[in-house]
Amino acid sequence: MKAMTTLEQLSQTTRDLCKTVAQEFSSLSLVDLNYKPTPDSWSMLECLEHLNRYSRYYNPALAKAIAQNPCENCVPSITFSWLGKKSVDMVRPQNMKKHKTVKHMNPNDSHLKRATTEEFLQHQQELLHMLEDAKQAKLNKKAVPVEFFKLLNMRIGETLAFVVAHQERHVQQALRVKQQLTQQAAA
């Protein structure tokens, strides 16, 4: 898998997610953004807050790993370890299997404001800068501790792929909540 193509694809997906979140959620009221189809499901803002919690950990961890592993003349390519492949496959939007999140990453019953969306978009801008910086990094260096088990490290490139796939998954989840809200309002 060519890294430049992959990094470019990850950047494009991230830009698309920013555009989607800005377009789809900015005109909604705070009441609508906090709408929950069921008490145990997440609202649109809770989906974004979940991603914010992950970004608060992974953005600094990735920035540090990228800065500490420069590569001037290496051929950038991303290869996936068993852990990286499993992690990315688990969070791909196409994988509709539900997974229980760790307690501190679960935003259920949070009281969220519009700042949640603004923070999400800010994290995406940071990620876009990291994806650009990653073009000059050793992408296959195991340098990013896994959030819930810091003794395990993932490779820089596979962590970037994990983060973007995870965000894509939960933005799509938020869009499904919006669709349910629209259907309920029309009924």
Automatic annotation (TrEMBL):
It comes from the Bacteria. This is DinB family protein. Residues 23-174 form the DinB-like domain. Pfam families: DinB_2 (PF12867).
